[in-house]
Design brief:
The structure is a homodimer. In chain A, 56% of the residues lie in helices and 12% in strands. By secondary structure, chain A is α+β, with helices and mostly antiparallel strands. In chain A, helix 7 runs antiparallel to helix 8. Chains A, B: Its cofactor is Mg(2+).
């Protein structure tokens, strides 16, 4: 029997199962709280690099990486504004640190699972649900989803989606409490690893009103990272932040 | 004679000079192409750290740094979307690199001067126009201006302002042409400095379909920076990018 004769009848009993796009539309609708218009965008947002598809353009394979780039920027901006308004008397160092904790890969992975996005991702091995080596996949897909929502539904909708449906999974006060600063996090790392660590101000410029300092982190008597700032404290924070980035990338 | 009797008459001859806020309103109006509503926001956007003011909150001094944080995020997002749409067949690595060249501090300093923002900045020494050590001041103020415009006039206006009034100062095709990749820029640096440099893949994970590589930059036989990526080439680019960041911060 031809498929197109049977499927409308079957779909009465298993609504939507016959049409994966319809299923996706419904799932995305639940997640974003509105009817998606361009389902293709969401399909792309959920396609991990490992399932990337060749295109008519030679050397250009399509996956959610471009949407992730866009969504990362949209998410970053909406969170920036949210924190700016929530903490009118906190400086930009605080706002930057709290934002980076909110859009942290592990946290985004968690939110992605909470809203059920993980079950929709298409990746190499997705039929057997065996995970690839890199599990930042969930958070990446969440950022890509934000990119897709932005292109599909515009800025005001996306802003509300981020604030109501994503940020609601955070306890921001708790995030702030856990805000150990970079320097103390680096010192903890050194203690854990049995390394000797110290900070040195290696340069300062400016006059009595206006100064800039360069701080260096020294690990086991070897220069490890440097950072600059308007005060010694800020320069040390910046150097410690660079050092932590280096450690994370190894 | 009381000031409020004379000033309306004087202002007929030197319009606005009697009221710095009026002057600022006019100058900002020229720059953004619309009447600013909350002039205080723009005043704050133009107040460099060196001219920061104490507030009622102990330890919290007010300058344009918070608005710079917000504007940086808004600018980053609008440029991200612009490049995403302009280059539909370029990967996220390309888009990220071109964006970082557009929002590069030196470039922003230049645009800030071109639109005349530099003459409006309030900083320590601004009466004599003697410059502080740190000249990223212009670009910082431009980002803060974007933050102020966003809070004052909303997203659609700010997006148009960035695209029409700021991006118009760029020759994007030229920016793209100058897109030397990180690895070749790092190699040029090593040649200039007479350093020996090589890249090594120090780790790889995954299966035949899905891999992640860690690359290390080695300068004069010392590990210098590492980076990761889905291909050896991307891992090397990422390591070279980290190395360039380290060099810039010293």
């Amino acid at each position: 029997m031809p498929r197109n004769v049977l499927s409308p009848i079957l779909s009465l009993f298993r609504p939507g199962d016959a049409d994966p796009r319809k299923n996706l539309r419904r799932s995305i609708g639940h997640i974003i709280g509105a009817r998606p218009l361009n389902v293709g965008l969401y399909q792309l947002a959920l396609r991990h690099t490992s399932a990337s598809k060749a295109t008519a353009i030679e050397g250009f394979r399509e996956s959610n990486e471009r949407l992730e780039y866009l969504g990362d920027a949209v998410l970053g901006m909406v969170i920036a504004e949210y924190l700016f308004k929530r903490y009118p008397y906190k400086d930009e160092g605080f706002l930057t640190e709290i934002r980076s904790r909110i859009v942290n890969r592990e946290t985004l992975n968690g939110i992605s699972r909470k809203i059920g996005l993980d079950r929709l991702i298409e990746f190499d091995g997705s039929r057997t649900r065996s995970l690839p080596a890199r599990t930042s996949m969930y958070g990446d897909a969440l950022e890509a989803l934000v990119g897709a929502v932005y292109l599909d539904k515009g800025f005001p909708f996306t802003r509300r989606f981020i604030l109501k449906k994503l940020l609601s999974h955070y306890d921001i006060d708790l995030v702030v409490q856990n805000n150990a600063n970079f320097k103390s996090r680096l010192i903890e790392w050194a203690q854990r690893e049995g390394k000797e660590i110290r900070f040195e101000i290696i340069s300062e410029k400016g006059n009595s009103h206006y100064r800039e300092f360069i701080a260096q982190v020294i690990v086991n008597e070897e220069p490890f990272a440097t950072g600059s700032g308007y005060s010694k404290k800020k320069a040390e924070q910046s150097a410690a932040e660079k050092a932590l980035e280096l450690l994370q990338s190894t």
